[in-house]
Amino acid sequence: MKTVYNRQKILQICLFLVVFVIIGRLFWLQVIDSDYKDFARNNAMRYMVQYPPRGEVYDRNGEFLVQSTESYDLMVIPRDVEPFDTVDLANTLGVTAEEIRKALDKARRYSKRRPSMIFKQLSKEVKLKLDERHPVGFYTQYRTSRTYPRKIAGNLLGYINEVDEATIKRDPYYRMGDYIGKSGIEKSYEKYLRGRKGVKVELVDVYGMPQGSYADGRYDTLPVPGRAITCTIDAGLQQLAEELMAGKVGSVVAIEPATGEILVMASSPSYDPDKLVGRDLGNNYMELLRNRRHPLFNRAVMSRYPPGSTFKVVNGLIGMQEGVTLPGDLHPCHNGYTIGRGVKCHSHLSPLNLVQATANSCNAYFCYVLRDILDNRAYGGITRGGFDRWREYVKSFGFGRKLESDFWDELAGYVPTSEFYDRRYRGSWNSLTVISLAIGQGELGVTPLQLANLGATIANRGYYYIPHVVKKIAGLDSIDARFYEKNYTQVDPKHFEPIVEGMYQAVNVAGTATRFAVPGLDICGKTGTAQNPNGADHSTFLCFAPRDNPKIVVSVYVEHGRFGATAAAPIASLLVEQYLTDTIRRPEMMQQIKEMNIAYPMYDKRGK
Q1: Which domain holds residue 320?
Q2: Residues 218 and 256 grouped into a single domain
Q3: Which of 187, 432, 536, 542 could form a disulfide with 340 if both were Cys (CB 3.0 to 4.6 A apart)?
Q4: How far apart are alpha carbons 333 and 248 in whole angstroms?
């Protein structure tokens, strides 16, 4: 009997303990623990991303190039949407009822519970109207959009647009509906310009109307504005370059040789950057994309052209460094180089030395120089050894590779290899086979940025700074260290003086560009006429000024512009004059260039 009694006591105690635990747990959940209470509140909470204002962009003189303005996105949570007047909402937004239905369908496919952006970059006026009577399930979210006071440099500055799914998967910072830089500075400096997002936790009622901040904002985080960027661009000079390039296809690049800072980067045709802002961005983008002159294409860094006669100075420098050419050496020109298939040339004094050949852009002279380089006895007189050495020199000037500028879409250009010629000619080739390289033709391909960099290298007598377009980032002591380093060529500085003298004489004494001399500026220049199998030759001109302590380098490339002195040289000369004197004393020349319209067979008169 005692054993049975003990068992009953044990069962009673166990039952009591179980009941005690259950009651205690209920008391804890209902009175003490707030987790479930908070969970319930979550059903009435809205986590709103707080987007920071994007960093603004200034020119080198502190003038606005890009500003951020107040705008709003219309957001929707599909599961919260109740029946509403579609026509009334469409009228408020300035869209059609069908567009609203399509936007809602897309949002539902993405997520019924998560907020989706359905209409972007609404004005403050529209936002205020929506605040008065927006349907249940909809709300507005503060954003900023871009505006461009000068309406210049579209290719350089770039544009922003919604982030794509690939980027979202690659970078956890971004969410659907975020904006990201798609090209130009906006893309290259995205991580500085975008800032850092914050979050605001807001209480809403059953109709989706805001009821104030949750927990007095204890769980909110403030957004961090994007950093302002000071560009190296001179806005006034950039605008003049774009005006002079109107009606032409090509580019202008100007560099301050003492720093590598890009003063001008104009690609023509360009576009009004305000076209790629707001709700019409998609339509305007497609219109620009269909334009046969490709205004979205930044020719300054993405085009690969034959350098033409501007490249002769490189061969002259290599010849002197290799000891196969002396400045006083004379070579004849009988309207061209007559050995082998020959290379034609225009009429001028003959024979010429290096300075005269540079000033008069003699084809024959530099054919002799290139053959002496390639057939150099130091390499056994075998073209292949001389060619490989020549290619090393050329690459030291920044050709055949990316310059590592701050443009994400910069091309490398092309300098052929001996293996390339082995394949093309089955191992049977010599210096005469590649003689067109002497005058910057053949397989050579360079970008306008690389040509401008060549001008900076000559102006500096043998070195360059990597060209870049950003001067300062707010809050940082300096930009990337690589932009402060000197990059030396493999040519001794002493060999640059004869080339500088030749470029000086080309403009100021007796040469191919004397019409574009400006008294007192000591412009040193080299004309180029790049052969083109698809129509009229390209016009190019490379110059710097003044001769001593140069302040500016300008490279102009005009597709189908014919001779270097026809289109490119006057544009470069006017830009140099404007930059160094802050005025233009040749209004007739400027007007003539502005009215020059170079259309070619690919395009009709509208450029479409």
Answers
A1: 235-274+298-595
A2: no
A3: 432
A4: 34
